[in-house]
Amino acid sequence: MEKSVFNFKIQKQDGTIIDLHEHNLFVNSFRIISLSPEHIVEQIDNRHGSIYLGTRLRERRITSQITVEANNYNDFDSLKHELYKLFNPLEKFYIIRDLQPTRRMEVSVANEFDIDYIYLEMGEFKIDFVIHSVYSESVGSTLNPTLNFQVRTHEPVQYRFNTSTFKVFNDGDIKIDPREMELNIIFKGNSDNLIIRNLTTNDQWEYSGTTLQSDTIELSGIRSFMNGFSIFGETNRRLITIDKGWNEFKIINATDFEISFDFRFKYI
């Protein structure tokens, strides 16, 4: 069979890439279900409707139908065992679609599946996946881009800076929030009462101490380190987020420094 436009690759957690087509697996359909909202409301007696308190997104589903081919019946039976290992529901892995090679989705197998025989050397099965984080993400990160890493802007982008003002571009559809997503900001250089300010989001992170040229500050998720040791108690206990699109930054009380931003774009 010819390679389908719905074909996808599996990326294991160790980085191993498995192309389904090269393993005699042919994807007949691949459907990503839209965002599934759960509106949180409060009901009040003797009042029409409800009071809206917020919205959360439920896990997102993918449904797919796949044809499997083998050289003969004995090979087909062995291939079934390989399929059970490949789609092990105990392991999370990434799906990278041929139609969107710059993006990946971290998924788990959502259900059991059984192979229906078309004839002795061919069968097909339906399998569902769940995206626990809801969003897809760029295959590469801003500091570790892949060959097909792309951004949707004609302006030049960079993620390392040594000036007090600069702009960081988030190509994704979603704000990067270190409470839920990976974001690593690394500062190296001289500072006294360092301030990192995102003028676009009004986020401001402050450190009340002093750094030398040999020191490294790392904001990793919700944690703050200097030279590998926590400095959270010496900060203002705030976080930096990266809004979608361009973000204007200002570094205050620092000289002879470099600051870098490493994250993956998140897409709906």
List the helices and strands and how they pair.
Elements: E1 8-11, E2 17-19, E3 25-32, E4 37-42, E5 51-57, E6 60-69, H1 73-86, E7 93-97, E8 103-109, E9 116-119, E10 122-131, E11 136-138, E12 160-161, E13 165-170, E14 183-198, E15 203-206, E16 210-211, E17 216-220, E18 223-226, E19 229-230, E20 245-263, E21 266-267
Antiparallel strand pairs: 1-2, 1-7, 3-6, 4-5, 6-10, 7-8, 8-10, 8-11, 9-10, 11-21, 12-20, 13-20, 14-15, 14-16, 14-17, 14-20, 17-18, 18-19
Structure description:
The chain is mostly beta strands and 268 residues long. Helices cover 5% and strands 48% of the residues. The strands form three sheets. Strands 1, 2, 3, 6, 7, 8, 9, 10, 11 and 21 form a ten-stranded antiparallel sheet that branches. It is globular. The model has no long low-confidence stretch (mean pLDDT 95).
